[in-house]
């Protein structure tokens, strides 16, 4: 079998999962962001597919396969050909017709159903596929977490009404939870952003990145080591430094309450907000010089006012129209919330040159008072509660004091700020905590976004043409491989006969996803009795339904054990020095425990161990 393991951690890998997939011989990069899935990785993916097939069958989802090469006309119908962005692979055929490589398949499935389904009686339909997708990432990185070609499960449901969509949406939520639990993942279902999909209601599923400072999570101690306290401090420190040298995988921040079930992506998270009644006497607006004060902190110190009494003004271009955004003090704007509230296709910060042309001043001196009529004004809801605020004066080097919302400027108000860790949960139960996460799934209620733009209708019970109501459901199949390894990577600590402490990296695969159930190793392939016993064990185990990877290479025992730790199968059975007595060694990967067993009793032992489940 092709399992090209590496002795050292690859220097170009920045996250643990990428390094271990390379070192354990699971994947190899063909070009930037494009990987080959070698036999072990392919077996994991096939097992994940089996889990998905089983869970989706329970909700009457039917598998199909659409082409990856799509005519651009489909995406022109929906309007996404122009708005999707630079990640869309665009190409021409020999006739100079426009095509794309599919990053997702809403348009394709909408057209298929539009042309085949005419009556509400033919609905609902629930279809899915598992295939490669293509997105021209500007900076592919971190192994399978950010690639240009990736494996995705995408499902689409079609309904005559929203009540039917709600049922299927809930079915998918439960199916996703079952799939991720069976895959051995620590995950959270969170409030998500529909983004380029165009959906309204959506939920993301995030695999939580382990805390690299929590040694108990990472370490598997050899049976000769009683506890972590036994390991010398210099070895423990080396292990800590090794862990902290890796980047934290996951580009998303998960915000969750420590006192309730609330969880959301940072891009969508809110915190508790209570309307505050102003009691301060309103001061008169005064223009004051603030030389060399560009930041909120500098203005706060110079004027000796609390940061919370200042209002920051940012300028954006929203669908090419100027938009001034107000925030309290050092709050940060949440551009996803802002874009969703505005309902625009394009949103970007204005240049300082544009700010001077539109508002008369550069960054650091912008304010909401006396804006031109061409500038729309939107404020975070916390701004409305500030009395006698300090704002920019729209003149370089000057600010205004005594500014009061409602009297001195009028704005629309919305929740457009980024929450901070430690704030109260929006449901009032607990405080907000932050964790890093890897997006592994996303479900959307698309509604009629695509059916209306592409003319997909059915006749309802009254004979009227109504747009089909749709849902979309995705799982990042190849990302799950990374997420599982990220969560189940382990440092195996051993004590040598000389009394030294050694540690090495490996994978501790959950039993349902492990490429094989058992790693069977012959220590000395020149020992005929060992070879004979290995052959018998392999045959017996396979007949009992176990998937067995047998290492009968003519290699040193140390190399075989090292590769076994890397590959990460739940159980290792070693045929060694006691082969003539019919005795083999069984090692449980999840705990590091080893026991000697008579080969005749191996089956019963494995049954007790439950195929080495890491649960």
From TrEMBL:
Keywords: Aminoacyl-tRNA synthetase, ATP-binding, Cytoplasm, Ligase, Nucleotide-binding, Protein biosynthesis
Record text about domains: Consists of three domains: the N-terminal catalytic domain, the editing domain and the C-terminal anticodon-binding domain.
Pfam families attached to this UniProt entry: HGTP_anticodon, tRNA-synt_2b, tRNA_edit
Catalytic activity, reaction form: tRNA(Pro) + L-proline + ATP = L-prolyl-tRNA(Pro) + AMP + diphosphate
Domain spans labelled Aminoacyl-transfer RNA synthetases class-II family profile: 43-497
Enzyme class of the recorded protein, top EC level: ligase
Enzyme Commission number(s) from the entry: 6.1.1.15
Lineage: Bacteria, Bacillati, Bacillota, Bacilli, Lactobacillales
Cellular location(s): Cytoplasm
Family: Belongs to the class-II aminoacyl-tRNA synthetase family. ProS type 1 subfamily.
Protein name per UniProt: Proline--tRNA ligase
Principal location class: cytoplasm
Source species: Streptococcus pantholopis
Quaternary structure and interacting proteins, as annotated: Homodimer.
GO terms for cellular component: cytosol
């Amino acid at each position: 079998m092709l399992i090209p393991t590496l002795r050292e951690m690859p220097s170009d890998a920045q996250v643990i999962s990428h390094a271990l997939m390379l070192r354990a011989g699971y994947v190899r990069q063909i070009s930037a962001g494009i990987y080959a899935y070698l036999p072990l990785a392919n077996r994991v993916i096939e097992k994940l597919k089996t889990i998905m097939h089983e869970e989706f069958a329970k909700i009457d989802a039917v598998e199909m396969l659409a082409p990856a090469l799509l005519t651009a006309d489909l995406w022109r119908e929906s309007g996404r050909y122009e708005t999707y962005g630079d990640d869309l692979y665009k190409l021409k055929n020999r006739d100079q017709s426009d095509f794309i490589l599919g990053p997702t398949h809403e348009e394709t499935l909408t057209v298929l159903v539009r042309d085949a389904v005419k009556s509400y009686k033919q609905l609902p339909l629930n279809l899915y596929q598992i295939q490669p997708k293509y997105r021209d990432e500007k900076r592919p990185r971190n192994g399978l977490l950010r690639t240009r070609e990736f494996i995705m499960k995408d499902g689409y449901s079609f309904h005559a009404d929203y009540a039917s969509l709600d049922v299927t949406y809930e079915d998918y939520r439960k199916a996703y939870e079952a799939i991720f639990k069976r895959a051995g993942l620590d995950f959270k279902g969170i409030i998500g952003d529909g983004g380029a999909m165009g959906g309204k209601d959506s939920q993301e599923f995030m695999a939580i990145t382990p805390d690299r400072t929590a040694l108990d999570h990472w370490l598997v101690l050899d049976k000769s080591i009683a506890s972590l306290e036994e390991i010398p401090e210099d070895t423990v420190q080396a292990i800590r430094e090794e862990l902290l040298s890796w980047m934290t995988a996951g580009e998303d921040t998960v915000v969750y309450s420590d006192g309730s079930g609330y969880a959301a992506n940072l891009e969508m998270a809110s915190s508790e907000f209570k309307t505050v009644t102003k009691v301060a006497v309103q001061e008169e607006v005064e223009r004051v010089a603030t030389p060399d004060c560009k930041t909120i902190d500098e203005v706060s110190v110079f004027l000796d006012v609390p940061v919370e009494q200042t209002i920051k003004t940012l300028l954006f271009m929203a669908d090419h129209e100027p938009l001034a955004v107000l925030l309290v003090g050092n709050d940060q704007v949440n551009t996803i919330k802002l874009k969703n509230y505005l309902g625009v296709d394009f949103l970007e910060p204005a240049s300082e040159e544009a700010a001077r042309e539109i508002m008369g001043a550069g960054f650091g001196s912008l304010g909401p008072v006396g804006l031109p009529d061409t500038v729309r004004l939107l404020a975070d809801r916390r701004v409305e509660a500030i009395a006698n605020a300090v704002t920019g004066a729209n003149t370089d080097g000057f600010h205004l004091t005594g500014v009061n919302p409602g009297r001195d400027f009028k704005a629309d108000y919305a929740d457009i700020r980024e929450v901070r860790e430690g704030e109260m949960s929006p449901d009032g139960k607990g405080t907000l905590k932050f964790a890093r996460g890897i997006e592994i799934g996303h479900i959307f209620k698309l509604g009629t976004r695509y059916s209306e733009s592409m003319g997909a209708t059915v006749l309802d019970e009254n004979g009227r043409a109504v747009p089909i109501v749709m849902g979309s459901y995705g799982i990042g199949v190849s990302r799950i491989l990374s997420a599982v390894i990220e969560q189940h990577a382990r440092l195996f600590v051993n004590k040598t006969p000389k009394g030294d402490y050694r540690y090495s990296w490996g994978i501790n695969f959950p039993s349902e996803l492990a490429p094989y159930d058992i790693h069977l190793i012959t220590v000395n392939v020149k020992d005929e009795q060992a070879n004979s016993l290995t052959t018998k064990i392999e045959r017996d185990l396979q007949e009992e339904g176990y998937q067995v990877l047998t290492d009968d290479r003519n290699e040193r025992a140390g190399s075989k054990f090292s590769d076994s730790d890397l590959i990460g199968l739940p159980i290792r059975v070693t045929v060694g020095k006691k082969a003539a007595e019919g005795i083999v060694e069984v090692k449980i990967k999840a705990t590091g425990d080893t026991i000697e067993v008579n080969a005749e009793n191996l089956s019963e032992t494995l049954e007790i161990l439950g195929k080495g489940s890491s649960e």
